[in-house]
Amino acid sequence: MKGYIATEWCFVSGRAKCLLSTRVSKTFYCLFAVILVLVAIGGCADPQSPHEGKPFSRFNVYFNNDDFANRSMVCDAVFAVSRSSPSTTNGAAAALEALFKGPTAEERSQGYRSYFSVRTAGLLKRLKIKAGIAYIDLHDRRQELTGATSSCGSAEFFTQIQRTLEQFPTIERILFAIEGQPRVFYDWMDFECDQTNDNCDPTPFMKW
């Protein structure tokens, strides 16, 4: 009969059969069916990964790890861990930002170590690459990197950055500044201003 749904069912313990006729709105029935289909589809869908459906870049960052080195406290022996980020025109900057966040808790439990951590996550102020030179301008976080100026600490600091940037073939040299001032950085590291750091010339950091 039009406008009705008939359901026939039997009692398991008896012989009687009854025919149940229930008046159901066609509109309600169709809506209910659509909801069931949507719920089924949603339940089967896989959760999205952070970069699913979006272009992303994969790169390495480098940290010290005494478990992998030939002997403990090898200052310039660094090892790669993988990172990824949404694709950007400046992959080197993304790599430095990831490096400056330091090893994850799981990586630290595996022996990776660095002076970089969540406290230095915003260390990078800006990065410019010109004529093969990476100009790294840092925020002033010296109070959070006190150990990085020792002989071994500075070796770890520079090696982790150098190896991380070596994967980008356009970079041949690296120069540093703090708040646009190279002399402040190299004085902090107890380095002389000489030809190796362009005599601490601030001009490239001023003309951004």
Explained architecture:
With 208 residues, the chain is of the alpha+beta class. Helix content is 29%, strand content 26%. It contains 6 helices and 8 strands; from the N terminus they run ββαββααβββαβαα. It has helices spanning 26-44, 91-99, 105-109, 151-166, 182-188, 203-206; strands at residues 4-10, 17-23, 56-65, 78-86, 112-113, 124-130, 133-138, 173-178. The chain has a 3-stranded antiparallel β-sheet. The chain has a 3-stranded mixed β-sheet with strand order 6-7-8. The chain has a two-stranded antiparallel ribbon with strand order 1-2. Strand 7 (133-138), helix 4 and strand 8 (173-178) form a beta-alpha-beta unit. The model is unreliable at 1-25 and 37-51 (pLDDT under 50).
Global morphology = globular
Q: Total number of helical segments?
A: 6
Main beta-sheet strand count, sense and barrel state: 3 strands, antiparallel
The proportion of residues forming helix, as a percent range, comes to 25-40%
Q: pLDDT below 50 for ≥5 consecutive residues: which ranges?
A: 1-25, 37-51
Write the layout of secondary structure elements.
Blueprint: E1 4-10, E2 17-23, H1 26-44, E3 56-65, E4 78-86, H2 91-99, H3 105-109, E5 112-113, E6 124-130, E7 133-138, H4 151-166, E8 173-178, H5 182-188, H6 203-206
Parallel strand pairs: 7-8
Antiparallel strand pairs: 1-2, 3-4, 3-5, 6-7
Helix pairs in contact: 2-4
